[in-house]
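In keeping with the milestone schedule agreed at the kick-off meeting, the structural modelling team has produced records for the first pair of proteins. Each record is given below as a sequence line and a structure-token line. The laboratory manager (R.T.) confirmed that both were archived under the project's standard naming scheme.
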Amino acid sequence: MVAERKLFIGHKLRRLRREEGVTQAQMAHDLGISAAYLNLIEHNQRPITVNVLLRLGDAFGVNIQEFAVDDTDTQSSRLQEVLADPLFSNLDLTRQDLRDAVERVPMVVEALQLVYSRYQQGSAGEARPAGEAILGRPAEVDELLDALEARQNHFPVLENAAEALSDEAGLRQSALESGLTRHLAEAHGHIVRSMPARVMETTPYRHDFHGKRVLFNELAPLETRVFALGKTVADLQLRDEINEIIAATKLREPASEMMMRTTLSSYFAAALMMPYARFTDAALESRHDIDVLQARFGASFEQVAHRLTTLQRPGTRALPFFLLRMDAAGNVSKRFSAGGFSFSRYGGACPAWSVVNAPQHPGNLGVDKVQLPDGSEFLSLAKSIRKGLPLAGRPQRRLTVVLGCSFEYAEQVVYADAVREAAPSPVGTNCRLCPRSRCEYRAFPASGAARL
């Protein structure tokens, strides 16, 4: 397990106090501490303790796990990326200036990021000025990914629901498909059928809600079938829990809610396939050997990689893995920054990073040791995977899945053994934010923000 770190989240506590409309003296009274001590916490001169967090939850009804996430580094990185735009080229800011802004005026920072996101997307269909390309993904995609990062990609309610269902329905890891099929029939009157590939074509499964049927393509592999059954259970009996989570995220984009609903039902399915305690123990025991974890839990490479990013239960946290999924054109459909590694929101990935070449070696796992400009080192794993089902020789879509963590955890990851003594490959977040002026892979000049 990873040792719990001291939490300096004074800016979040100060924002909560102002939102609640109470003075320092009033909040200090509710928390059972002195106003002077609360002032020290708000200014990050003292860490917030577990006891204060618990009292905060009781007194103000906050979600302790979400509140306890220190997002200063993530928000600073996002602000740095915004300021890399030529619009701000004349500003002379330091990295400490960015941290100060995040800690002292977080709402202003969020507003700036929102305005810049709208600027990137264009307003009411209007294009940006001539010669300026629109970078980044649709706003609803970034909003969803940001919401997941803000919660460390961990949802206790869904973890608990998966564990409860496993116990109540008597699910066995070695027979999840039959167990979930039985549960859907007994609890929801649903039947499960296999359909010919010529009927389903490249669709792996379909949930016929009104007909109370789950129809599988005969070509769908076991891990896809079990995952789909888990998602169906979530759709049928976890609506209230999922609605509450979505409401708490306060999503702004209408399309984000639908994507979040799909994401949360997928989260529940993964928690059923790879139960938290058992999966965490297996990950640590095998030194995070993905092949071993795939075999033990009947899951795909991507399912295992994604599950590894969710193991953030307080008291039993596993390694903080980051994750990226992109297509051959560099379009990012999944990203989760963690452990000090932040992905770019605007612009592409670093062309010097070996992961961009993963599609040239399908099926192989690329292992690399990389170093960011600030000197921090990371282990990265990249694999090109196929998505969808084969049909009459039609080409399948290929995606690259990247999983990684800080190299400080090398002893706990078996793949680090192969590159432990190797010199790290110099990479950056992207060309705009990388100060390495002599890099032969550079696509365009660095912005002023790269000096921060």
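The second protein of the pair:
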Amino acid sequence: MVAVCCAMVCLTGCNEPSSYPNRPITLICPWGAGGGTDAVSRQIAAHLETELGVPVGVVNATGGKGVTGHNRGFRARPDGYTLTMATLELNMLHWNGLTDLTYHDCIPLMSVNEDYAAVFVHSDAPWETIADLEAAIRANPKTLTASGTASGGAWHLALAGWLISAGLNADDVVWVSSTGAAPSLKELMSGGVDLVCCSLPEAATQMKNGDVRALGVMSPQPVPGFEDVPTFVDAGYDWTLGGWRGLAVPRGTPADVVKTLTNALDRVTSGETTILVGASQVDGEVVRRRQTFPQFMEEQGYDNTRRGPEEFQRLLAERDEQLGALLTSDVMRSVNRDRFNAATFPNALLAAIGAVLVLLVVQRGLRRSGSASESPIENASLRRRSVSRKGVIACTLFVLAIAVYPLAAETVGFVILSAALLGLMLWSLGNRIPTCAAVTLVVVPIAYQFFAGVLRVPLPRGWWGW
């Protein structure tokens, strides 16, 4: 049995052909499901599956105002199996002091979309124009609420910039942080917020249904497909701001892999690939409808501007310089203030775990000191109820295993790290070493084959492809 299990472990890392790609690819989306970035990411993923011949799964890694997704994507193993749908926030996060991650930490492949910010209100709102809204804010500052993304994100910056350009303060509208446009629009329709700032395509369905109205768009020219929405320029405001979306991989990704992905994205964004989007019966025959990526973008009202690697790199550098000057200015300091930073809650959780471990140790010490004056029967009862040293060690190792796995998985690999942690925890619970080894050699390979082979979930491969 042990020999068979060892063979299963070895086979998990030895059955891969050398050509790229030969296993599932993960596409990291830094924003929530249902929003514009999510929609574009899933379309790109579907087309890449057709072009590359392997599954491409979208993972919504939200949180930290975009830090979580961008960091997860650009800190991943640089092997071409983790792509990131980067957004304008990449040019903002480090200026806000949220991370040291910049566009220098990635290799830009292609930008696929640029959309300008727009301001939306509920269909029953009293404001008919952006000038009406400005007057209401000026009369009662800090009473209206807005949302659209995380605090300090692209759409927040767009709204704050307009307020400043209109002679108001950046915080005269209270910003409510969210994970993207979709949940923000739900809040707007339910009355949870007064305004939403996001792109026109992200709110196209709600506009069509009559749930929300667009007061204006922050573009220099009317947006194709939304020509009836007035621009801020036409309303007399000297303010425009749009976001971008683009694919990138971690720095250090091999040149041949970058070339393969760039060529695939070029074919996808130019409309050379199609995917099945529906079927219908015409005269008794099934007619399948196929769609290109540009057709999807046009139908949904998304801008379809694409930029190759060099042009995308220049865009990143220009936006980084532009937004750096804006975000570090005195008038924008209020936008970047938060009651809690990204490490507040993880630190609080670690502190709580530490406090519990300390209390367990103290409890054991008190039990020991009090046992001297008790009868033998009472001492036995106390020992049964007290926390053992082995229990404290097991609890500590369990907490450490949870902390170590996300930090070391990409480097060490799923199979090796999982086997080491599982074996260590089983041993700490008092099991004999042969038993720990046998259970580990059975459970870990089965788990790997189930997730990576059956479900085709991309798992960290580490040193030896395990």
